[in-house]
Amino acid sequence: MNTGGPLSRRIIDKMAIRNINIDCFFKVETIVGFKLKDDNEYDRLVRIITEFCKKKKYKTLDELKNLIDLPKTRLIGIETNSKDLSKVIRNLDVASVEEILRNALILSLTTESLIYDYERPVILNKKNLDRSIIFYNIGGFYANY
Amino acid sequence: MKTLNKLSYKGFLNKIGIYGMDKYEDIILIPLITEDPIILIGEYGTGKTQLLNNLAKILNLKHQHYNASLISFEDLIGYPFPNKKTGEIEFMKTEASVWDANSILIDEINRCKPEIQNKFFSLIYERKLEGMELKNLIYRWAAMNPPPYLDEDNLHQEYEGVNYLDKALADRFSMFIKTPIWTQLDESTKNSIISDRLEKELAPDKDFIETLTLLKKELKESLGFQHHDINKYSIFVADSLAKNGIDLSTRRVKMIVKNLITLSVITGKKEFLFFYDVLHFSIPHRCFGVRINSDLLKAIHDKAFTEYINGNIDYFHKFYFVRNFIQKTEILINKIKDPYERGLLLTNFINDDVNPIHKKAYLYTLFPLLMSGRIDISFQALELVFLNIMDFYKYNIEIDNEEENDISLLINLNNNFIDYISSKLNQEDNSKMVNFIKLFLFKIVEENPEISKEIIDFLINEMKDFCKEYYFNEKEEL
Fold first, then answer.
1. Is residue B287 assigned to a domain?
2. B44 in contact with chain A, both atoms CB, cutoff 8 A
3. Which of A137, B131, B302, B339: CA 20 to 30 A from B283?
4. How many other C-beta atoms can be found within 10 angstroms of the C-beta atom of residue B133?
5. How many domains, in total, are found in chain A?
6. Alpha-carbon distance A40 to B474, whole Å?
């Protein structure tokens, strides 16, 4: 049992578990999120989107789905606190409308349990938007083998 | 003329203070109609004696309850005395003697001496004692604690003085009904049991007696016909078991046929799950310590039923019944077409008291198929499936991000299991599949350090076969 030391074996196993990790096992499909400084910023974010819809004469938020290229497959998400994710929007002034809309739509189509589904209705609220999520394509598990 | 209301017996077990066996209500009715002898097998305190004694009360039977480990033969027959007129020996009836009884319960039947066991032969099978017929005796019931399996270490026998039942004696009983232990009961049943504190004075239940009388009449008529489907089913089962080293006597096969016909009379239909339960309870081998592999029995039943019984396969229930992951998924894909029905099935499966480790392993392995839409299910069900297994999917990512979890993982895992799982899986050349399965198994071992190697082996085989079938054999279209 002790040959080579149990610790050395543990390290090997640890590496094996890490092998499963992220992009080589389940493909990272996209990373989205908002980390805005306060509630006013989130109000502003919702205003930007609703005004955009008014300008386009959309009757429902769902019509935005046709405008932006969104993933069509279901994805599962993992919330992250990582600060170095460049795709997470921290300042609305420096982000393009397309970026804002894409991030907001994906988050709005993601349940509380962190499943993204294109077919869901768009639900725009602060709770949905105030998240940073890495999305994995579990369904593509077999596809790229 | 009175007609039979098939539902008039429903709930009779609860009425007599027996909880947790509701799903076997139809099956317990079988020996009450055939009047064939049965044994209840169960751990101490599982209500075996209560069930049989209380049944006697509601059936208004003159009932005698004997404890086989304490009994002497004289207790059964009373005191012998010579009849002066005829010159023959007769037996003086006592309160405890068996002569006038309508029903007898021989408790702890496997604790008595072999010579007493021998005396029970004719009593149980022919309703005779000392060559004399017991004209009033209808029901012969027995109860016993389960003896250890022959393939187990007998040094760790749980019950002192528990013997194996003689094979020939066991073969006289038509059914062997198991009573569930506390940990197998669900919360509401546990609650019902402990709330039912008052000893009920049970009165004869006229409706129940009438129902039994009508069912007995119906059975008599039904036994007058040939049941070719049940005959073929039983022959196939007996032959298949024999091929696997489990021999059934001719009498046993006839008993299985009779029990199945009775079941059909009671339920009015031929149902997949009930047939299995009756088959399972009609095999005596537990009494003499022979283990029957339930997967084998299920597979034989599945084949026999599908092949020979023109009955009703309830795929919802069959989905729970089969343990093989691929077979389960075939039902999901081919037999249930509607995404909402599939969702409903999986929701019920999640809420059912199926073995939680098997359940999680199956859902974990199935999940990519659901996510990709290759098996279409309702979104609500998909979400529920995910909630049940998300810990496994998030596991690797969490340990990567937080060093603390990483360390706790290494401390908690049982090294012997890591070695075992790795040795079983590392021969596979598909590293993606190996890691997918390992991830699950490492976490399940962490959560259940007492898990057995048999379960690990089962999971590895099922998960491997499933992955090869659906993910890695280039079978793109389902």
1. yes
2. no
3. B131
4. 11
5. 1
6. 51
- Given pLDDT bands bounded at 50, 70 and 90, which one contains residue A3? very low
- Taking one residue from A and the other from B, the number of pairs with CB-CB distance under 8 angstroms is 107
Domain end (from B283, B315, B347): B315
Q: CB–CB of A26/A138 below 8 Å?
A: yes
Classify the complex by whether its ipTM is higher than 0.95, answering yes or no.
Answer: no
pTM over 0.80: no
**Within a domain: A3:** no
Closest Cα in chain A to B368? A139
* Torsion sign across C-alpha atoms B318, B322, B328, B334: negative
The tokens describing B443, both together, are: 């976490």
Alpha-carbon span B381 to B347, nearest angstrom: 6
Residue B377 neighbours by CB under 8 Å, 6+ apart: B339, B342, B343, B346, B370, B385
**Which one of B284, B315, B346 terminates a domain?**
B315
Report chain B (478 residues): mean pLDDT per 10 consecutive residues.
59 83 89 95 85 91 88 76 76 78 90 78 83 88 87 59 83 91 78 71 87 92 90 95 94 96 91 92 91 88 88 80 89 90 91 85 93 88 91 63 46 66 82 83 84 90 90 56
8 Å CB contact of B397 and A78: yes
Half-sphere exposure of B285 (CA within 13 A, CB side): 19
* Model pLDDT, residue A4: 35
Mean pLDDT of A62-82: 86
Give Cα B126 distance to the centre of its chain.
Answer: 28
- As a whole number of angstroms, the distance between CA B256 and CA B27 comes to 12
Q: Higher-confidence residue: A139 or B31?
A: B31
Please state, in angstroms and rounded to a whole number, the distance separating the CA atoms of residues B437 and B443.
10
Tell whether B270 is covered by a domain: yes
A48 part of a folded domain:
yes
Please report the pLDDT score of residue A141 as a whole number: 67
User: Which domain covers residue B461, as residue numbers?
Assistant: 324-470
- As a whole number of angstroms, the distance between CA B355 and CA B353 comes to 6
Q: Is residue B223 assigned to a domain? A: no
% of chain A beyond a pLDDT of 90 = 16
Q: Examine residue A114 and state whether it is found in any structural domain, yes or no.
A: yes
Structure confidence at residue A24 (pLDDT)? 52
**Partner-chain contact A139 B438, CB within 8 Å:** no
- Contact at 8 Å (CB) between B92 and B100? no
Inspect the interface and report whether the beta carbons of B371 and A138 lie closer than 8 Å. yes
How many structural domains does chain B have?
3
Same domain, B117 and B205: yes
- Classify residue B416 as exposed, middle or buried by CB count within 10 Å of its CB (0-12, 13-18, 19+): exposed
